[in-house]
Design brief:
Three copies of one chain form a homotrimer. Chain A is of the alpha+beta class. Chain A has helices at residues 22-32, 57-70, 87-96; strands at 2-10, 17-20, 36-43, 48-53, 99-105, 108-109, 116-121, 128-137. In chain A, a hairpin with a 2-residue loop joins β5 (99-105) and β6. The longest helix of chain A is centred in the middle third of the chain and has 14 residues, at 57-70.
Chain lengths: 138, 138, 138
């Protein structure tokens, strides 16, 4: 059994941005030389998410509109009494989930036909990190 | 350390269906001969979920009503411009979560008294798959 | 590769209570002597959650208000026909997520600067358990 760890860094141009990272994760899995096991992909900042869903721009737009409805920006959140203005980003990231575990089989990510991994930034324009930790057998 | 992988297949009669899979997962864990570790149970399709909650038909009904309220079918989703009609299924599966990791201790699933694992189908009537990957020590 | 398992017990004074458990999990990881791997922290009861977010009382208040809005107590849930009165707790715990997997690197939890682990109780005043299972290399 071995482990292998790398970090992905993001600094988005916009506050809200969804970025496909399937290929980045797959490259780390290849580099790990682990052929069977699992890889954890987890946002290390608490206003961003990592999720698995469709790589279709219409649906990504739908996700963003839907999240704004369920966890709106600009409300009178108590968190904002600290000087922050991003309470909605904490809520939105909770709805999307902040981590996924991807299976590795026969040396590659073992994903369904439409599964794509995304990094979802809800409070960007600053440097943020995602940990990618692979664990399994060579 | 060893790994062991199997797949569960589903083709539900109805579009919306929640199916208890605790026993199926437990059987795979037994077959794996792994006595301590973890098992990942993850939907490989992006309009279905895997979650842990109560095996009580009233609550399952409540979940379904609640999801319809938070992520309704039939809205004018942009995803539907692709010809799809299932954007709500993508949102609902996100609320429920698409995967769980179950601990294995002393050769069995290490679950609390009411924990049951479910497959939640939101766009059924087609063949879909769940990956079950066990990792741990014999 | 080794595994190490402990349980955290909770019996909250109030029905709703959010408790920071980062240090408890870190102590179990130290005790495990596992220096690289992952630790699963998972609620074993189906009306409580385990999540990662900010250790800021205003935001915790915001989370609680927000959850009450999305999954209100006191509705005419079908689950209540069984004599239960906690359907909302099942829904709220689903929104927050019931488990997290934390990476372990160089002998410690590999968390971002603001990541804190919380136990969220939605139907307390009874004994409940969280499983903490560490897996990795010494």
């Amino acid at each position: 059994m071995r482990t292998f760890t790398e970090y992905l860094w993001f600094e988005t141009a916009k506050r809200l941005e969804f970025i496909r990272i399937t290929d980045d994760v797959a490259a780390i899995v290849r580099k790990s030389a682990i052929t069977d096991g699992m890889v954890l992909v987890s946002a290390m900042h608490i206003t961003s998410a990592v999720y698995v869903n469709d790589w279709e721009s219409g649906l990504i737009h739908d996700f963003q509109v839907w999240l704004e409805g369920l966890a709106p920006a600009g409300l009178d959140y108590r968190h904002h009494q600290t000087g922050e203005d991003n309470a909605d980003a904490h809520l939105k990231r909770t709805l999307m989930g902040h981590q996924v575990m991807l299976p590795i089989t026969d040396g590659a990510l073992d994903l369904g036909p439409w599964e794509q991994v995304f990094y979802a930034e809800f409070d960007g324009q600053r440097r943020k990190r995602v940990v990618v930790k692979v664990m399994g057998t060579p």
